[in-house]
What we know:
By secondary structure, this protein is of the alpha+beta class. The protein is built from 6 helices and 4 strands. The chain has helices at about 50-60, 80-85, 95-105, 105-115, 120-140, 145-150, and strands at about 10-20, 30-35, 40-45, 65-70.
Amino acid sequence: MSKKANEITIIEIVRMKPVWESEEDAEKELHYYQITDALNRKWQTIGLNVSDAIQVFEHGNDDNWTRIIEPAPYNPNLTVNDLINMLNISPEAWRIRNDMQIILNTVERRNEYVNRIVNVNRESRFLLLHQMKDEYLQHDQLTDNTLCICTL
């Protein structure tokens, strides 16, 4: 069984115009589909029918057949629990849940995470989360003076 690049819930899928017209068989016509995922991003993909479009979407972003056409809007009320639910992170995945609580500790970081993740799967969630942690530690370190004041 092949591994899915996108393991995120599809909220809405809409059939759009044909990729190209087919004079022979309308059932075998390839169409564009617009998908809204659980993070509220809009994607464009292709398929012969809805099931085919979902399979193409699950193979992930490739800029040819499947791509994000509209990023998620900024959500000033986005919580870590919202993200956990949107990303279908199971209760058994306590490590990533804890990491998310620590690394995504502001609404700005949570929204940045939503905007930076492209394909949603276990590995991508983990890699981006820890990349953001490394960036945060590199750019927002406490100075020695601030650290000394905080520990007094």
